[in-house]
Amino acid sequence: MTTSTVSFRYFILGLLTQQPMSGYDIKRLLKGFSWLIGSPSFGSLYPTLHALLKDDLVTVEIVPREGKPQRKIYSITEAGRQVLQEWIDQPVASDAPLKAFVMRLILASNFSYDGLIAYLQQRRSQVAAHHATLKQIAEALDEMDLGQRLALGYGLAIAATELAWLDSTLDRLSRPLQQPLPMEIAQGD
Amino acid sequence: MTTSTVSFRYFILGLLTQQPMSGYDIKRLLKGFSWLIGSPSFGSLYPTLHALLKDDLVTVEIVPREGKPQRKIYSITEAGRQVLQEWIDQPVASDAPLKAFVMRLILASNFSYDGLIAYLQQRRSQVAAHHATLKQIAEALDEMDLGQRLALGYGLAIAATELAWLDSTLDRLSRPLQQPLPMEIAQGD
DNA sequence: CGAGGCATGTAATACGTTACATGATTTC
DNA sequence: GAAATCATGTAACGTATTACATGCCTCG
């Protein structure tokens, strides 16, 4: 079935594995990544949370605060974790947009070390294949207009960068002892 | 108003400025960029074409072919060009997803040389600002989980690449004589 | 002779945005 | 005292996906 875009529903659910959060917290967190994955509006964020609650994938705790608006802190349930795991395990379409990758990247690391490595390796082979395809298209160019050629060049640059990033990241993750970045992963799942 | 995502409607309309095409042609063309911008399904592509036709932004020519399915070739009208120009001229939100940039990149070059340069320069300043923001977030890290840190590193790598690409592209476009890539642009609009 | 590409389309449904509505607190 | 941030939510609308439906041709 190769899920990919399947919306913010599971992504939001996945963010709650890190820590319980309110809708507002989620929005703020996602703002930093809006460039890559976009950030849902409150008009879709809150209803999504309500739907997850109705399906018993999350629970709420209402926190009233003096002099400040109340907050509704959502936590993922066991059922939620199971559903999420099933979603994570589904293969990603090879031509899925970049945003699908970043979304899963953020989630995958919260599940298992092996899963993360496997995911990055899978992505590496997909991007490598994609890069090769773009190169092929670029070679058979001509009769292509400027816009397409520019976009093609851009795509190649991005793909090359992603390959380099994947290699260095996989390298850093596989020997986590001397490097500063990966810490909590050293303890595994 | 800062349009950005505003859908495939204008993007498809813009593709027709390159040359008249059928829905199937558009889909095939977009497949190569699906990684970056996604590709609309036929279920939205054909209705979009019908809507553009109804609004007199495009015209159709039905081309029957012996032994093969007929084709419906769409061409943009003068009204279509005007509407498109208005859309192109609208500013893009600074946190608009990457896909919005690539879409406009493909279109912008079909309009005017100056417009393209201006667009790339505007993008450059936006990405530079974004890159700075990410760096700031990265500095104030800790308490950030692995997934977010990875995504942040990835975002920084992509942003840096895009900056480099924008610089070299702007450089190549501003002196188009000795380089092979930009040819038809030398004649300007 | 079946799979996949060519080529078009419709209907049901899911997903998401914009605009609206409320209300207190902090910052300029 | 106006604007931005915090914090939640609903309703109307637009946009896209999936699944369905059709039919011929080509390649293995």
Structural summary, described in words:
The structure is a homodimer of 189-residue chains. Chain A has eight helices and two strands. The N terminus and C terminus of chain A are likely disordered. The two termini of chain A are 27 Å apart. In chain A, strand 1 and strand 2 form a beta hairpin. By secondary structure, the first copy, chain A, is mainly alpha-helical. The interface between A and B is large, with 53 and 52 residues.
Describe this structure in a few short sentences.
Chain A is 60% helix and 9% strand.
Task: Itemize the secondary structure elements and their pairings.
The structure is a homodimer of 189-residue chains.
Chain A lengths: L6 H9 L7 H9 L2 H4 L4 H13 L3 E8 L2 E9 L1 H12 L8 H11 L4 H27 L6 H29 L15
The first copy, chain A, binds a DNA duplex (28 and 28 nucleotides) through helix 1, helix 4 and strand 2.
Poorly predicted residue ranges of chain A: 1-5, 182-189
Percent in helix of chain A: 55-70%
Topology pattern of chain A, helix = H, strand = E: HHHHEEHHHH
* Main sheet overview of chain A: 2 strands, antiparallel
Q: Biggest chain pair contact, residues each?
A: A-B, 53 and 52 residues
Structural class of chain A: mainly alpha
